[in-house]
């Protein structure tokens, strides 16, 4: 029986023909990395291959590593296996990995979304025989509204808080979500302040994106300076001593999980905005259809439900276990660098 082009083993997703892993969760010799979030980008590999824009991000997070940058659409060969990276639209520098060998083409998405967020290179469907897809929000209940409407609501919330003399504290993960929020905040309302973790990552990304001016919150910044303005911070800042400086304030979280009111209550958040860097139900279905693939592998999220629905549509669909988290743990109390949004 022919060995599949990509297999799932204890280290990650492995291409035996090339002797290379994609987003491995254990230390390996050679790794192709889809993006900079911690569940896909681990420390300890001997060699990293990733998109050019992701190089400074993973260096910032992992330190002194051996890494090669590749452009979107640029083909590279490893042991006669042809690889290329294609936009995933998830965050800055995120990629899908196309693998071609002996006439067979597989695509691994990593994490992705199909809506153009105005900061990441938009998702590009890639024709293939087998499509490995995340399904973090693989339930019909998840249906996103256009981000233009979401940001209109966010900016209205900020303006309303300002009229009441309150500071607006908006939570979003340090890499990806925070920069997306910054990009679309209306600076005519007031100033944007940032938590140190957000500021540090944003400074890494600024050369690759047109982002507004931000002010780092330090001990020298007074409560009066913050009043009426907006603060972008990681979820880990909520409930910390750091946030006491913002009083009086209103909090909000931007997440796909804000679809469910209970999620907001569990986090003691005043306001929830439904905004995700992953596909909703329809986005996943549209992406699958656009690839032309008949074999679909679901890796993380609502895998069983999504795969069962695909089989009802006539696809050869199955699931595989991975150690990717995506937004699945977004409601847990974790360090800001541990999960994405």
From TrEMBL:
So where does this one cross the membrane? none
Q: Which GO terms describe its molecular function?
A: RNA endonuclease activity
Query: Which superkingdom, per the lineage?
Result: Bacteria
| NCBIfam families xref list | Xnuc_lig_assoc (TIGR04122)
Q: What is the protein's given name?
A: Putative mRNA 3-end processing factor
Q: Which organism is it from?
A: Aquimarina spongiae
